[in-house]
């Protein structure tokens, strides 16, 4: 992984080392399918938080008064990211936050391991930070999903969408 990922793990997330290692592995997989992350100047932050904190962030920054599984706050436009030279001072790519209770509930509903669901959400969040947005169009949503599937496949995790065969 070329870029730097600053990780903060707060209670009630258990076993801090396990989540930190999982985040690093997920980020490395994303870097393999999204080469724009190969720039060593890039830094991103990831906070493992609870639903209350993510709800507050979601309300403050997106006007949605509810928790969500992952929030991503890009700090660079995609064009600027793609044009960023490898030499120079560090550049903040953006911030992400994961909500434990929502992630746990969703994993149970999907019948998947919490670790696999969290890995998927980290991949998803990092792709948002590099400028992918599934809310722009169905084509962009599909392109982003395919990148997610490819990154997860590198980690031995099945297609979370279950409907793509061209990935």
Describe the structure.
By secondary structure, this protein is of the alpha/beta class. Helix content is 48%, strand content 17%. It contains six helices and four strands, in the order E-H-E-H-E-H-E-H-H-H. A four-stranded mixed sheet has the order 1-2-4-3, sandwiched between helices. Helix 1 packs across helix 5 and helix 5 packs across helix 6. The mean pLDDT is 92.
Short description:
This protein is of the alpha/beta class. It is built from six helices and four strands, in the order E-H-E-H-E-H-E-H-H-H.
Which key features would you list for this structure?
alpha/beta; 167 residues
Average pLDDT for all residues: 92
Unreliable stretches? none
The arrangement of helices and strands along the chain is EHEHEHEHHH
Shape, principal axes of CA atoms: globular
Give the total of beta strands. Answer: 4
First and last CA, distance: 22 Å
What does the largest sheet look like?
4 strands, mixed
- Per DSSP, what share of the residues sits in E-state strands of 2 or more residues? 15-25%
Broad structural category? alpha/beta
